[in-house]
Amino acid sequence: MSRTIEVCLTPALLDLYTIEKSIVVVIDILRATSSITYGIDNGAEAIIPVAQVDDCLAYADRGYLLAAERNGEVVEGYDFGNSPFSYTTEKVKGKTIVLTTTNGTKAMHLAQERAHQVVVGSFLNLTSLCDWLKVQDKDVLLLCAGWKDKFNLEDTLFAGAVVNTLRKDFVHFDDACVAAEDMYLLAKDDLRGYLKKSSHNHRLEQLNIEEDVKFCLKLDICKAIPVLEGERLISLNS
Fold first, then answer.
1. Is the pLDDT of residue 41 over 90?
2. 10: three-class secondary structure by DSSP
């Protein structure tokens, strides 16, 4: 079977893609999908992505950890936000976390409405994800969460890394794949340096979370592939 791989550069363009039979990889490198991957890899039982901050409150009496981020900052009154350092084994093992973020959780809900399957990608699990995608008999859409429905560099760079890794295994690529891969090849030797140009970098600099950014660009420190089953993100291998 000749499989296609496409890149959707922002959720605002998702309606243009036919994804009913596709695996959609949701990408929000800084920082939702990185934190989710790290949390699942560190033994979180599940992470429930919700669209709005108020949606977290519906779970408040179940003993779950509540995580809410807006514009890069923890929402007041919640256990934690979107930093991968909040998702360590000590904090999340055996726990269920309810999470809402500015961009990533929204993209997951949009994808889930139509996609055959929704999984989560990050540099932290790049090889595990690509090895799994290689052996699936499905087309793939790489969905960049972007920033408030706008294009961003970091998600597109990761999409380019996936395209570059899977180039021999897929036949059909769209122009967004070509652009993302070219950008990744330009940046791959110094991802952090390249991303200093990005608008999100300037936002994050003001929040003083440089260590988060560096961590989210680490390669292959996780094996887990989070998959959306119903309302819950769980480990694909669980």
1. yes
2. coil
